[in-house]
């Protein structure tokens, strides 16, 4: 075997956030429990976003409280925080349940149009929002994930040049490497696990475009200076056209050892859908693990337990959609 690959499952957050029917908090907590028990290295549990914008995730604090007692040793729990207010929610949870949240995630994009539509801010403005959050993460000893959406293509601007993505990554690395953020008061590294997570938001990637993207990022001078981090580059793939597994293989050949997946392939960018056809979502964690193993690498995941988590996820979503359809018919 060629080495160990780190697997993050994002189904409780990215997989569920676009579901129109509200899934009960208890079902979400059970999904987190099952996914964590499968042996994945990290579970992206939820996001502290405004319930007005993402009603599905309005129970973030309650969900985390429900997950606190059953967190397996060695599994990282992460949450998305879009801004300083979102960070307030994460800090409040850890004040009650010490160490429950291990990592916070922030997101920007390589497309100005997507950034404005998704965050109501330019790329520059999103990076400015990161500064206070990074300082608080450093003070709280939290690891940090920095997402870059539309790393291969944008639903509005089309293909994104790899150099544009690399420029955003360069600016993110500059933020993360700033002395106030990357070192504690004694000069030690605070962000020992800073990650750059490149997102193929609409699933447009191919083996060739994945290679071009990674070549551009890995050739940055700043990337070499960032080598003290542990597995600093993550790939977040959507399987819209069924090519995600080939992108995984290409990335493994180029040294990437950390990937995101979502059990049962839950999720999917709403901008990639068409009328009457919902776009396939994130690469299924089951597909991701198979691709990694077929390429000669290993993971910590138990396939049988992962399959049980995927079956539960499909059932929970089916029940939620059926209940939402009943409500819609009742209002008609």
SSE order and pairing:
Elements: E1 6-9, H1 11-15, H2 25-37, E2 42-47, H3 60-67, E3 76-80, H4 84-96, E4 103-109, H5 112-119, H6 123-139, E5 143-149, E6 153-154, E7 158-159, H7 162-177, H8 179-182, E8 195-200, H9 207-218, H10 221-225, E9 233-237, H11 244-253, E10 258-261, H12 285-294, H13 303-331
Parallel strand pairs: 1-2, 1-10, 2-3, 3-4, 4-5, 5-8, 8-9, 9-10
Antiparallel strand pairs: 6-7
Describe the structure.
By secondary structure, this protein is α/β, with parallel strands linked by helices. The protein is built from 13 helices and ten strands. The strands form two sheets. Strands 1-2-3-4-5-8-9-10 form an eight-stranded parallel β-barrel, surrounded by eight helices. Strands 6-7 form a two-stranded antiparallel ribbon. β2, α3 and β3 form a beta-alpha-beta unit. It is globular and about 55 Å long. The mean pLDDT is 90.
Instruction: Please name the CATH topology.
Output: TIM Barrel
CATH architecture tag: Alpha-Beta Barrel
Number of DSSP strands? 10
Structural class: alpha/beta
Please list the strands of the largest sheet in the order they lie side by side: 1-2-3-4-5-8-9-10
By CATH, the superfamily comes out as Aldolase class I
Provide mean pLDDT, rounded. 90
CATH class: Alpha Beta
Characterize this entry briefly.
This protein is an alpha/beta fold and 332 residues long. The protein has helices at residues 11-15, 25-37, 60-67, 84-96, 112-119, 123-139, 162-177, 179-182, 207-218, 221-225, 244-253, 285-294, 303-331; strands spanning 6-9, 42-47, 76-80, 103-109, 143-149, 153-154, 158-159, 195-200, 233-237, 258-261.
